[in-house]
Q: What sequence folds into this?
């Protein structure tokens, strides 16, 4: 089976812009979770989607949002980018919030 | 809330040395426990997992045993290789909450 794929792999944006990241889960997986990884804060949970519904949410401001489509693909959006949003954004898929398999990540740089 | 504490790095070992990375957790229920590994420039790879007390997860020579009495899940390998150089993360997930809780990671460097 193909693994989790994320696009794009690298992004450079400027403050105030918005960005959309995409994640395609492993075939058959219905749960997609998103995480932010930074050197200072480590790995932090953003949100989880299951069957197109947000099932769980971390402690991030409303500028961070996501959605899931009927084919389980997921997108996350960050509006009004801040310098502190520079991070590696990781997507993980699972059958039902159990063992999670991660994609390679999207490296976002905000200038 | 739930949390994971793992030993601070970096850890530097010579090839063929014995590796232990300590991990302890705090949880209200009965979590599943995981070790993930991250190589430079990559995402996280699942290394091993254990879902209940006394379970032993193993993969690629790495092992970890779920110890409920000490709330620990220490990672061990008998003989490390240069290719094991990476950052190792201990994590837990509880119930169907959908979110892994990670330790801060331990960077391992293995010298030839």
A:
């Amino acid at each position: 089976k193909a693994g989790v794929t994320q696009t794009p792999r690298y992004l450079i944006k400027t403050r105030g812009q918005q960005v959309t990241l995409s994640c395609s889960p492993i075939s058959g997986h219905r749960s997609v979770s998103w995480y932010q990884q930074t050197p200072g804060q480590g790995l932090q949970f953003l949100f989880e989607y299951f069957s197109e519904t947000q099932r769980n949410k971390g402690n991030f401001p409303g500028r961070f949002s996501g959605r899931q489509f009927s084919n389980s693909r997921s997108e996350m959006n960050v509006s009004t980018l801040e310098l502190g949003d520079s991070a590696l954004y990781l997507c993980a898929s699972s059958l039902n919030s159990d063992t999670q398999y991660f994609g390679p990540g999207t490296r976002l740089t905000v200038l | 809330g739930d949390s994971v504490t793992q030993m601070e790095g970096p850890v530097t070992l010579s090839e063929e040395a014995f590796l232990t990375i300590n991990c302890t957790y705090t949880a209200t229920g009965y979590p599943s426990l995981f070790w993930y590994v991250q190589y430079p420039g990559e995402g996280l790879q699942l290394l091993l997992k254990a879902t209940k007390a006394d379970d032993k997860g193993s993969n690629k020579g790495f092992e970890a045993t779920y110890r409920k009495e000490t709330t620990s899940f220490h990672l061990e390998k008998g003989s490390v290789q240069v290719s094991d150089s990476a950052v190792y993360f201990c994590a837990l997930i509880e119930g169907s909450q959908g979110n892994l809780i990670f330790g801060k990671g331990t960077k391992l460097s293995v010298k030839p």
